[in-house]
Write a structure and sequence with these properties.
The chain is an alpha+beta fold and about 120 residues long. Helix content is about 20%, strand content about 20%. The chain has one domain (about 5-105): 2-Layer Sandwich (HIT family, subunit A). The chain has helices at about 5-15, 60-75; strands at about 20-25, 25-30, 40-45, 85, 105. The longest helix has 18 residues, at about 60-75. It is globular and about 35 Å long. The model has no long low-confidence stretch (mean pLDDT about 95). The structure holds adenosine monophosphate and zinc ion. Zinc ion binds near residues 3, 6, 8, 9 and 100.
Amino acid sequence: MNEPDCLFCKFATGKIPVNFVYETEHVLAFRDINPQAPSHILIIPRRHIATINEIEDSDAELVGMLVTAARDIAKQEGTDTAGFRVTMNCNKAAGQSVFHVHLHLLGGRKFAWPPG
Ligand code: AMP
Ligand code: ZN
């Protein structure tokens, strides 16, 4: 269920205290420590899943909750109308550095495409 050495599991279990901007039975969100935009929030499932590769078909509802959380938090942050970006990095080539799936919700500035 939770990995003892996983930073985001420690947030989820309260082992390391963090301020949540959004909290439900299955999903948590908090501000990124190294923000890449004026509003940069990480949205995670409480349950440990290392990468997108480990997501099971039966997790589809949970993964959908990450996106509905992004919708609600963007509204909370006031970035919904101007626009925002949602990103999930999977494994090293994409730059994943914390191996507990998370969705980046970035807003408050203009974003380039294609991403770097
Ligand atoms: P990724 O590179 O996609 O795995 O994203 C991991 C994110 O976690 C990075 O944007 C980091 O800045 C962020 N991060 C790492 N440690 C912490 C922390 N203690 N609190 C909040 N965010 C963190
Ligand atoms: Zn974890």
